[in-house]
Amino acid sequence: MLDIPLIDWQVGYPFTVRDACEGVLIMGGLGSGKTSGSGALLAKKYLELGFGGLVLTAKEDELDLWKSYCKKHGREDDLVIIGHGSDQYFNFLDYESSRPDKGTGITHNIADTLKTVIKAGANDGQESDKAFWDASLQQLLVNAVDLCLLTSDNIRFKDIYKIIQTAPKSKNELASEKWRKDSYCFLMMEHAARHLNKHPKTEKTDSLARRLHIIEDFFYGNWLYLSEKTRSIVEQMFFGFGDRFMRDPLYSLFNTKTTVTPEDTIKGKIIIVNLPYLIFENTGRDGQILFKYIWQRAMQRRQIKDKSRPTFLWVDEAHYFLHDHDIDHQSTARSYRACTVYLTQNLPNYTLHAGGGEKGMYRFKALAGNLGTKFFHANSDVETNEYAADLVGKELKWMGSEGQSMGDSASFNEGSSQSLLHIIQPSKFAQQKTGGQLNGYDIEVVVHRQGIPFTSTKKNHALLIINQKKI
């Protein structure tokens, strides 16, 4: 399976399923042909070979694009659309609760999922404070989720929301009869305590009692004694996300019933999450990152056999959909035959959405370093072109020199010396053909791959021509 060729490069050594499993990064400026060129070519090959896949959407026209791909390559029956106005749903809490690991395993699965989506849309602030805010948010989520699991077999997001919304904020509030009567958080803990008191002590009830004691210690202790400012910040981190999930379209899509799961892609389905970021903004981003993260974890649980079907994650405008665990997923994706394809215009897009500055650059390099094949289309961004040129590498070249001096008599001299120069100058990337009638529909793209060099160049890079009319 892994050695099946997908693309027979004209420069030698094909792009195989193995290469696809090592991940792909496509970068190119507006109108460079990254979608209609290398993107369309890869989509064609993945669909023709029967890959299942998850497609995230940034623009409104991406749904129609993938519908046309599936129709053209005989995969219309495999298309599943989850989004505004669709009849497909994914109750992520039921899904996580039905996982084989029980007790605290479920609690932390759900808390980690919520935290990942929340953090993906939050400003990290000062690095020195990041660990503190992360730990505080994690504690809040774990205890709220565990309280739901103690009191009900069917956990619902609205219950998590109400627990956090009505958690005690002061000693006076905790002592108030009105608060005790109205607080969903307090009533849930009281319900759990009464239920446990009705049953004889067993190993199971002792375990449940310990969990309840930990929850009570948190809400009546750690949470209560946080400073008002700190508690308010952590609450707003949650509610900024939670308010979007309590409203449609996210509430209906992800909190009601389940008709599609990430595992459907293993069976060959093409799932499109049609909540375009540029239309739905943060709501669209949250819903798509939620599904993306759960899908990535589902792929990591796969039991791979020799003929296991590869799956793909396709993300155009990928910088909008980054989260803290992308790097970890990509470092092992090859083992699970999960073929990542990220498309974006330039490096600054990534670094800005990955935290900005030096931090954003390190996160980009860590992720890009785990994407084995990179396509560089025409680009006018200096940083991106310098990154591409540095990746291709440098070599010693002889440079001629000449000089003259004027004194009592004129003298001229010539010489040469070796200099370490880019194999492809950064400025050359801005000059590549971008397709269309003017260029005979030819798109020029520099491909860099890890592993076996191209036969034509004896190096790990080559200039390829992709004709839009022949895809």
UniProtKB/TrEMBL annotation:
Pfam families registered for this protein in UniProt: TraG-D_C (PF12696)
Membrane topology: Multi-pass membrane protein
Classification via InterPro entries: P-loop_NTPase, T4SS-coupling_protein, TraG-D_C
Main location: membrane
Compartment list: Cell membrane
Sorted UniProt keywords: Cell membrane, Membrane, Transmembrane, Transmembrane helix
Gene3D superfamilies found in the cross-reference section: P-loop containing nucleotide triphosphate hydrolases
UniProt domain TraD/TraG TraM recognition site: residue ranges: 313-429
Protein name according to UniProt: TraM recognition domain-containing protein
Origin species: Flavivirga jejuensis
Lineage of the organism: Bacteria, Pseudomonadati, Bacteroidota, Flavobacteriia, Flavobacteriales
